[in-house]
């Protein structure tokens, strides 16, 4: 029989679900407590305020990204690794989409979180550059150092701003589906396409087809 999650873990998981579906700004600690069927006092025993819950969720997101955004150990990267990185990124964006939707507001509201995010961003950029250099060393991508740097930064800008782009083009309260996030990952793959070695392009074609979502579904008329 599965063990019931501890109260603190339940608060974190259910807060994540509420933030993702309703938007962090629309959810208060009272909403979270009511959703869990507990008193606000019981919730405050575990978390003094909503910012502490958000900090806990960011730590989970940070650990999740750190776990996959790194070079494999003891071997060169492969074309299959490209699929792994992009699909892992898509899953993390989906599971913690509220962070991407409300990022600017969250960082403005919490200076400590903003400082943590800056370190996280720098670490992600460093690891992403190392991964792209790994693809170059393996002969999968053809880039010089300046192109690696530019591609890393452009990919980061797309990933971190994609959900906000969807909100501005579809309306602030519009639902964000996995398909819509998938198109954001496709945009990263499209940026990389010009640097792929000719011999690996057939292998990457299937990934293009898997991630592609027509533009008229992303930006409705």
Blueprint (SSEs and pairs):
Layout: H1 7-22, H2 29-36, H3 40-46, H4 50-68, H5 79-95, H6 97-101, H7 103-109, H8 111-137, H9 145-170, H10 178-193, H11 201-211, H12 215-218
Helix pairs in contact: 1-2, 1-4, 4-5, 5-10, 7-8, 8-9, 9-10
Summary tags:
2 domains, mainly alpha, globular, Tetracycline Repressor, domain 2, 221 residues
Describe this structure in words.
The protein is mainly α. The protein has helices spanning 7-22, 29-36, 40-46, 50-68, 79-95, 97-101, 103-109, 111-137, 145-170, 178-193, 201-211, 215-218. The model has no long low-confidence stretch (mean pLDDT 93). It has two domains: 1-48, Orthogonal Bundle (Arc Repressor Mutant, subunit A), CATH 1.10.10.60; 55-218, Tetracycline Repressor, domain 2, CATH 1.10.357. It is globular, with a radius of gyration of 19 Å. Helix 9 (145-170) packs antiparallel against helix 10. The chain contains twelve helices and no strands. The longest helix is centred in the middle third of the chain and has 27 residues, at 111-137.
CATH C-level category of the largest domain: Mainly Alpha
Structural class: mainly alpha
> How do the SSEs run, as a string of H and E?
HHHHHHHHHHHH
Query: What value does the Rg take, in angstroms?
Result: 19 Å
User: Approximately what portion of the residues adopt beta-strand conformation?
Assistant: under 5%
Label the CATH architecture of the largest domain.
Orthogonal Bundle
Number of helices: 12
Helix content: over 70%
- Gross morphology: globular
Largest beta sheet, briefly? none
Average pLDDT score:
93
How many independent structural domains? 2
GO molecular function: DNA-binding transcription factor activity; transcription cis-regulatory region binding
Organism: Metapseudomonas resinovorans NBRC 106553
Keywords: DNA-binding
InterPro entries: Homeodomain-like_sf, HTH-type_TetR-like_transc_reg, HTH_TetR, TetR
